[in-house]
Design a protein that fits this description.
Two copies of one chain form a homodimer.
Chain A lengths: L13 H19 L7 H10 L4 E2 H8 L3 H13 L3 E5 L7 E5 L1 H21 L5 H14 L2 H5 L3
Antiparallel strand pairs in A: 1-3, 2-3
Helix pairs in contact in A: 1-5, 3-4
The structure holds a DNA duplex (23 and 23 nucleotides).
Chain lengths: 150, 150
Amino acid sequence: MNTPVVEERMESATGFILVKLGGAAGVLFEQAVRPTGMRPRHIRVLGYVQTQTLSQQELCQLTGMDRTTMVAVVDELERLGHARREASSTDRRKRVVTPTPAGLKALVQAADLMKQAESQLLAPLSAAERRQLNKLLGRLFTPDLLACLP
Amino acid sequence: MNTPVVEERMESATGFILVKLGGAAGVLFEQAVRPTGMRPRHIRVLGYVQTQTLSQQELCQLTGMDRTTMVAVVDELERLGHARREASSTDRRKRVVTPTPAGLKALVQAADLMKQAESQLLAPLSAAERRQLNKLLGRLFTPDLLACLP
DNA sequence: TATTGTTATACTCTATAACTATA
DNA sequence: TATAGTTATAGAGTATAACAATA
């Protein structure tokens, strides 16, 4: 008996494509923002603190990173001169993360690079198709899905 | 000046959603097939060898894994009793990977679990929308994109 | 006693280099 | 000389546990 037990090419399954494409997009963005000396997570943190005053703990909740990772990310932002830790005025346990002028400038550059990378990624689609894709993907991103993650 | 330099919520950007959703889908599949004792890569290898006779090297080319990872994956398939290494009749350097009856049975079970997980993932979409999404994602998965990956 | 930030540590994944046996 | 498989090892990424300061 030589009939395939299971469809051989899960390459065409939506789930498979989604996983692979997500990974590829991650690498693409990583490469795109490399000139800034940052990685996507640094940019995400900078994005949050550009208008709000947030502690590391609050940034953890917003980004889903854990405390120890956040320490490293803020360390690196400080080393790059893109953010500083300051004592919270209300709770002396907390340390507030504040962007420097250089950090804000780097954020603008990074956002531009990411936008370019996204354009490259979505190049095969028309503007209407991009909106369609964004809408469909957004609907998959349910609390239900997030609930079963670690 | 308190105006956001950069849109604060890249959460709505297609690239961001794609990366996050891909990661979530990966975890979902990982969890779904856990009852089989396998991980998605084992299942992928089993899927390839169910009808073809392939060496580890050939499996590397098909899956994109490197040699050392493939050794580990085949080791684990052997330990589970789902595949065996056999000497190639044409080239004694090569070792051909062959599924056992138990391996084929496990593959069927795994494929079913993955299908269920995919249904769960795509539950928010209608059948027509799923086809649409599959088509759009497929078009993003270009050789161009794969070329800029490591 | 609980929480914030921190450090040290362990664990997983993957990649690199070196070895063997065959070609 | 090059290739297939293997092993050992190192590196990055992430998670866990324990600690200091403060609530």
